[in-house]
Write a structure and sequence with these properties.
Largest sheet: 2 strands, antiparallel
Structural class: mainly alpha
Radius of gyration: 20 Å
Strand order of the largest sheet: 1-2
Number of helices: 13
Strand content: under 5%
Distance between the termini: 18 Å
Oligomer: single chain
């Protein structure tokens, strides 16, 4: 049922990809701002605020997940799980966003193209700067991180914990951005950033493996080995740095100096990274299906 929920949610995401803004989770941002307006400055700057901000949504989701698990022979639990997963993917369809960038470039709309490009570059801590090179390399690296944040990590946490896992990762991943946009940066910003990095640590490394399997394995592993020889700022930034360079390495089509580069043009690179994401997603679903297949065979 978990795998079926994942497949159905991904199909619904694709069908509804033309709809804008319905997964932005503005309600969670309003909740954060509501709490901010009702607690003292001292309380707001407490690292424990991370728990206070996340707990209500996760408690409600966990309770409904438990109550609906066996309702109507599990049908309500299945529907609930699928809807929560669908809402947790995103907040926007990555494929549609990349295609919008391609369309803007084709019609010569530089302003719209630059806006979309900047949106794609808004990865955790903008850490794709660690693999800056040609412009296309930066954008491809950012998309590799965005695919992890919007899809792969959410799907992995859903597989492990169900709806509460998917929603939990989505909220934890978005909380640092919401806090950073507040008028004052609370002391809870750093714990929120680290919590996000903790939850992303294992999924990001699995996603690296998926990129390597779905693309040029030798180049992906070679690029990872190369970047590991250089010290990272910290363990948090190292997660995003590895994810970015492995994704770019998996798309290697030519060598330039000592580092793989993305395909020759930005448009070709964008098409290639979408293909890599699709293949990696199929590999993930196949790997997650193995326990089910093993059960049938047993």
């Amino acid at each position: 049922m978990i795998l079926l929920s994942m497949v159905l949610a991904l199909l619904l995401e694709r069908v509804l990809s033309h709809l804008q803004g319905w997964r932005e989770h503005a309600l969670f941002e309003r909740h954060v701002r509501w709490v901010h307006g009702r607690v003292s400055r001292k309380t707001w700057n407490s690292p424990l605020m991370v728990i206070v901000l996340l707990a209500p949504a996760l408690l409600v989701t966990g309770l409904l997940q438990h109550l609906l698990a066996e309702a109507v022979y599990g049908v309500l639990g299945f529907v609930f799980s699928t809807l929560v997963l669908l809402l947790s993917l995103g907040p926007r369809d990555l494929g549609e966003e990349v295609r919008a960038l391609l369309a803007a470039r084709e019609r010569g709309d530089t302003e719209d193209a630059e806006r979309i490009r900047q949106d794609l570059l808004e990865t955790p801590g903008r850490l794709t700067q660690s693999c800056q090179g040609a412009d296309r390399r930066s954008v491809v690296a950012a998309i590799c991180i965005q695919a992890h944040e919007r899809s792969f990590a959410v799907l992995m946490w859903f597989f492990v914990l169900g709806p509460i896992g998917a929603l939990g990762y989505r909220l934890v991943a978005g909380l640092p951005r919401v806090l950073a946009l507040m008028d004052e940066s609370p002391r809870s910003l750093e714990p929120a950033t680290r919590l996000h990095a903790i939850m992303a640590w294992v999924p990001a490394r699995i996603t690296q493996m998926l990129y390597a399997l779905a693309g040029s394995t030798d180049d992906a592993l070679s690029e990872r080995h190369r970047v590991m020889q250089k010290p990272a700022l910290d363990w948090v930034s190292d997660t995003w740095r590895q994810l970015a360079v492995v994704g770019v390495g998996a798309l290697n089509v030519e060598d330039e100096g000592d580092a793989p580069v993305a395909p020759r043009s930005l448009d070709a690179a964008l098409e290639a990274v979408l293909g890599l994401r699709g293949r990696a997603l199929l590999v993930l679903l196949a790997l997650l299906a193995l326990p089910t297949i093993g059960g049938w065979l047993g």
